[in-house]
Amino acid sequence: MSTKTDRGAEPTVNLTGPGKTNPVPKYHQSFNDALPSKEKVAEVRQRLEKAGVKYVISCWIDLFGVPKTKPVPMTDFEDLCAGKGPQFAVHSISYVPELTSADSDQVMVPDLDAVYICPWDRTTAFIFADLFWEDKPYNVCPRQALKRAISEAHDAGYVGYAGIEPEFIVMKWNEEGQPVKAFDDDPAPGKGLRPRRQAFGYDVEYTTNSMPFLKEMIDILNELGWSLHDVVAEGAYSQFELDFHYTHLLEMADRLVFLRILLKEVAKKHGMFVTFMPKPTTGDWRSGAHINFSLRPTSSPDKNLFQTKEGGWSDESRYATGGLIAHSEAITALACATVNSYNGLVPRVGGFEGGTVTWAPTNITYGFNNRSAQFRLPQSRYCLENRAADMTMNVYLTLGLTLAAAVKGITEKIDPGKPTDRDLYSMTREEMDQAGIRRLPKNLSEALEYLSKDDLAEKVLGPTMLKSYLAYKVDEWERYHQSVTDWEVKEYLRLY
């Protein structure tokens, strides 16, 4: 999370702009209270029509952080904002079987503080929405869960902010219909001479080759008013990271979802596609999405609670770290949401492009600028960086539990213990045990076991959503565990 001042100009495609939405959005207990005022509806409609918008894609968020919609024309804008627009049988498609075919549908209420005009099609606007069911907030709406967590943190005296570092790999289809790296001009393995190459990370030649795609993304993000600071050619070939300005939690969650859509659409224009799969090939760097989190007191909304007047780390930052460490495994089950996520949370990889050390977190501890720890206290900014997160996460649930754990850490003064300011990759298991350092979950199944027993996670998600999430993810693990992989065939077919 950058500590620089906001450098964005007035945006033309994001109707809200950086820092202009309420950092404590209202969590409405009833459907009617959630409806926007007629004045707000008229104001947003006028701005959309002036921009040439003809169609609205109002999105609710499913259990896995994926947006869903039924587009409507602008002629139905007032009905949409009055809750008389499309209704959804969410329980029929979204892995939430607690309701049946005989139950009422869910109704979405668009959030007119979360409006984005599509940079690739300015006749269309995206509006994020909250789901209601029978006049109440739907209990399997992740966006509502985050808003509830924000409201409860505000009642305790705190407001959360976050920046996220999204990493992704750009790919294309080859002549055989196989996915290959988009920015990799050497012959494919087995197709010719493939000499040792310069590491992709920070490389000027490969960055230059990627600029037709990257320039479009840079221009769009700056036009959105997100204050893009830099674009990074990361460690894996064709892997990139976009670093843009931090904001309050709900807006950051919406931004990440919109960014995932945006990246895919821009890549299509260049004959490519983007994958957020954390580890698409064995000998590669993992794609992460580090969460940089900070708090401000409600009494002093411009103050970073993690920084002292003298410029050091505050006691509150220690206690917040303690809360995050106490609930690390449960947070990780949400932040690293797939079977594949855990293939990247390892210290070393054989045949690794660019070295052997992954720089990925493997242990639950914190350190000052220590990138081998799960939680890093960076040297350049006063925030807590959770390095065990990737782009498959449901960002609403992850940020909700992160906020609740940090606030709990402060209110209960949870001691995080001593920082680990040494290379964790070189420490033995005995040394870690002596220092009280836990291992991050080694797989999705292990993480889910912790999540199922975490009382704070049940509070943030609610028992119904937690039950649904666990049911699907346990099934995901079991389906994976029943499959026979190429590695197993190569390892065992002729050995035994």
Query: How many domains is the backbone divided into?
Result: 2
Overall 3D form? globular
CATH architecture term of the largest domain: 2-Layer Sandwich
The biggest sheet, with number of strands, parallel, antiparallel or mixed sense and barrel status, is: 11 strands, mixed
**Helicity range:** 25-40%
Uncertain stretches of 5 or more adjacent residues:
1-12
Distance between the termini: 52 Å
Structural class: alpha+beta
At the fourth CATH level, what is the homologous superfamily of the largest domain? Answer: Glutamine synthetase/guanido kinase, catalytic domain
CATH class of the largest domain: Alpha Beta
CATH T-level topology of the largest domain: Creatine Kinase, Chain A, domain 2
Count of strand segments: 18
Mean pLDDT metric: 92
Number of helices: 15
- Assembly category: single chain
